[in-house]
Amino acid sequence: MRFARFVHPGGMSFGVVEGEAGAPVSALTVAEIDKIPFEEIRYTGKRWALPDVRLLAPIFSSKVVCVGRNYADHAAELGNEVPKEPLIFLKPSTSVIGPNDAIRLPPQSRQVEHEAELAVVIGIGPGPARRLDRAAASKVIFGYTCANDVTARDLQKADVQFTRAKGFDSFCPLGPWIVTGLDVSDLEVRCEVSDEVRQIGRTKDMVFDVATLVSYVSHVMTLLPGDVILTGTPAGVGPLTAGDTVTVRVEGIGDLTNPVTALD
């Protein structure tokens, strides 16, 4: 199923996106549900054509946990070695934006770059999501969405640690929706900037797979429903400039598109 969070004339709701996979947005509808999607799904009976609503980031997150250098080719292009265990860092919840929201370039940086990624959304498991083995980690995964780990590369190099470079408002686009029941062992991850293909990778090339990442993070911090884990980016990261349009596409999920603007 595909779960979206959206604004409609009556307010904000969660809903199920209906229509064939790969169909144009104009052919899709969204059916409102009465609660967050982690619980039993009950439809309210209200539906809208997808073009008549505004999609938001598909979930509220207490934290966004990111994984660095999880594709060997990306580690190499930045002159880094592949880590022996997952390299994790955090993005603040205030960095999250949804589809078609603007990525705003901060004046502190002269080198903001895109990073297309598969994102994991944590759901409700049989118990607290802490210190999980790989099997238990798989059971707390609710679904998957697209992410763009926008990065001020010059600040990342200057600071050494990642907080400022990764944490600006608007630096974590998520969407367009959450897909459940998806086999993510070998999916294409692609990024296009103003119709130029910048990144093409496959999830089978991740150094650490999804279950390993969720397990590893859970041994550091408790994962709550709605938390998001970004699984790393393939090679091909590059600059974003004001006026660009950047699209992250993950096979089986859809397109996450955002314009790029200068911060006023």
- Estimate what percentage of residues fall within beta strands: 35-45%
How many β strands by DSSP?
19
CATH superfamily of the largest domain: Fumarylacetoacetase-like, C-terminal domain
The helix-strand sequence is EEEEEEHEEEEEHEEHHEEEHEEE
Note the total helix count. Answer: 5
**Poorly predicted parts:** none
Question: Could you characterize the architecture of this molecule?
Answer:
The protein is mainly beta and about 260 residues long. The protein is built from five helices and 19 strands. The chain has helices at about 70-75, 135-140, 155-160, 165, 210-220, and strands at about 1-10, 10-20, 30-35, 45-50, 55, 65-70, 85-90, 95, 105, 110-115, 115-120, 140-150, 150, 170-180, 190-195, 195-200, 230, 245-250, 255-260. Strands 1, 2, 3, 4, 5, 6, 7, 8, 11, 12, 14 and 17 form a twelve-stranded mixed β-sheet that branches. A five-stranded mixed β-sheet has the order 9-19-18-15-16, with no helix packed on it. It has a two-stranded antiparallel ribbon with strand order 10-13. A hairpin with a 2-residue loop joins β15 (about 190-195) and β16 (about 195-200). The chain starts with a strand and ends with a strand.
Structure summary:
This protein has 264 residues and is mostly beta strands.
Could you name the key traits of this structure?
12-stranded mixed beta sheet, mainly beta, SH3 type barrels, globular, 264 residues, Fumarylacetoacetate hydrolase, domain 2
Topology overview:
Blueprint (H helix, E strand, L loop, with lengths): L1 E7 L2 E8 L10 E5 L9 E7 L4 E2 L8 E5 L3 H6 L9 E5 L4 E2 L5 E3 L6 E2 L2 E7 L11 H6 L1 E8 L2 E2 H7 L3 H5 L4 E8 L8 E6 L2 E7 L7 H9 L9 E3 L14 E6 L3 E9 L2
Parallel strand pairs: 6-17, 8-14, 9-19
Antiparallel strand pairs: 1-2, 1-5, 1-14, 2-3, 3-4, 6-7, 10-13, 11-12, 11-17, 12-14, 15-16, 15-18, 18-19
